[in-house]
Design a protein that fits this description.
Blueprint lengths: L2 E3 L4 E9 L6 H11 L9 E4 L5 E14 L2 E9 L7 H7 L5 E7 L5 H17 L9 E6 L9 H8 L5 E4 L8 H18 L6
Parallel strand pairs: 2-5, 2-6, 6-7, 7-8
Antiparallel strand pairs: 1-2, 3-4, 4-5
Bound molecules: guanosine-5'-triphosphate and magnesium ion (MG).
Length: about 200
């Protein structure tokens, strides 16, 4: 649910990047940080292990204009994809306005993608959300990998809801901005519709 502060006339919308370990969630935030205007973005905070894996979450605020006199700030979070950080993943999903599911296109990660998507559903339900009602954008990342699955395969595995899909190479910044913009649009549309409950 969006946090609306009437006193300061601010709306905070939370975008959570979810997906299997090493899929490219942190790479998305890094690429966005490089590409958005310095005035719009806050500091990118990465909490990681020695081996560069996300330990708890990454966080970056983005200020993008205003809606009816309220300044709109997006809070971008990534979850840690490693299996054993389940509790952290669940905690970060407690407040969410839109999910970006970053799938790893590599054939060997097929099962990991499917598992992660079902883990997302379970965690959303635990927080009282109706998973199908939470705005979702899919990103098929690592399109540059030789073992990348065809898009139709990924659609069949992951896109049962008919969500918008963006192909990406996060490490080169390809498709990253488009993915975020789609997520931001969905969050704002939800806010305007007055639904923004999804619970
Ligand atoms: N070839 C290729 N490598 C990528 C791409 N995106 C990310 N990587 C690499 O994949 C590895 C994992 O990327 P991260 O962004 O750390 O993945 P993550 O989803 O944040 O991983 P966790 O924090 O463990 O959940 C890194 O070595 C990246 O450089 C891509 O589009 N193509
Ligand atoms: Mg990460």
């Amino acid at each position: 649910m969006p946090a609306i502060n009437y006193a300061t006339r601010e709306i905070n919308l939370r975008v959570v990047y979810y997906g299997p370990g090493l899929g490219g969630k942190t790479s998305n935030l890094r690429a966005l940080h490089e590409r958005v205007h310095a005035r719009a973005r806050g500091r990118l905070i990465e909490l990681m292990t020695e081996s560069d894996r996300t330990l708890f979450f990454d966080f970056m605020p983005l200020s993008l204009g205003s809606i009816r006199g309220f300044s709109t700030r997006f809070h971008l979070y990534t979850v840690p994809g490693q299996i054993h950080y389940r509790a952290s993943r669940a905690l970060i999903l407690k407040i969410v306005d839109v999910v970006v599911f970053v799938a790893d296109s590599q054939e060997m990660r097929r099962e990991a993608n499917i598992e992660s998507l079902s883990d997302l559903d379970v965690n959303l339900r635990e927080h009282g959300y109706r998973p199908d009602a939470v705005p979702l954008v899919l990103q098929y990342n690592k399109r540059d990998c030789a073992e990348a699955m065809p898009r139709a395969q990924l659609d069949a595995d992951l896109n049962h809801r008919g969500a918008a899909v963006y192909e990406a190479i996060a490490t080169r910044g390809i498709g990253v901005l488009e993915t975020f913009e789609a997520a931001a649009r969905l969050a704002v549309r939800e806010l305007r519709s007055g639904r923004h409950a999804a619970r």
